[in-house]
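Example record

The entry below shows one chain as it appears in the dataset: sequence first, then structure tokens.
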Amino acid sequence: MKSLGCMQLNEKNHVPFLTFPRLSALPYITHAFSTRKGGVSQQEFSSMNLNFNRGDSDEAVLENYHLFCTAAGFDFHKLVASAQDHHTVVRRVTSKEAGIGIWRSRDMQSVDGLITNEPGVVLVTYYADCVPLYFVDIGKKAIGLAHAGWRGTAAGMGAHMVKAMQTEFGSNPKDIIAAIGPSIGPCCYEVDSPVYEKVMALTEIAPYQCLQPKGEGKYMLDLWEVNRRIIQHAGVPEKNITVGKVCTCCHSNLLFSHRVMGAQRGGMAAMMALNA
């Protein structure tokens, strides 16, 4: 295993994937974040594309899922995918939803967060610069995954996840372990005034400390830190939050990046399951 940022780069069966040491230490969960390597997709989707409806063949994407699940230790037959549209809807899922978004049609139009307390169910969310948020309630044995682009971040996606876990499972935020996965980092994420204004509206987290002015109405935004502060403000102790510090833009040779590649590209997935 190699380190990348504050994450571990693993490889099995020629399929690389990233994990958090903090989460790997929990014996009752399996988690991973995919890379763009180790799959069968071709051309701009090369090669571990886990996103449907981008122009890649469904057959290739499904084969990639089989390869990735075998390597990272997930049950292909228990996958449940999100339906991301940059909002803050959180859905509780069970084995009844297995296959949705993978080999079954999506039955909801807006799901940026998934939670479950059922062992074996594999949560799946998608990325190519946006922020993956992982949540594990070590008290109630429940998990959650969320997608947070700048819109979801500004809308407090992390706090919505904590609240949903409190509502659905009786989670105590002090028992939640959270991790912030690979996304575009503060080194590369330049934004304009409309984004700046949305982030600055998060007055409870001192957002000005997460923005560096560049002049001419441009700013460098630290989405990792904004999400970390939002999750902490929701009651998760600072010591329970890990930031992976892996920039998709800087590592576009290993990871898909919308900022680098544009719309003609594949996509990555975050996955997590309670072990059956």
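Notes for this example: Helices lie at 21-24, 58-72, 150-154, 157-169, 193-200, 223-233, 258-261. Residues 2-188+240-274 form a domain with the CNF1/YfiH-like putative cysteine hydrolases fold (CATH 3.60.140.10).
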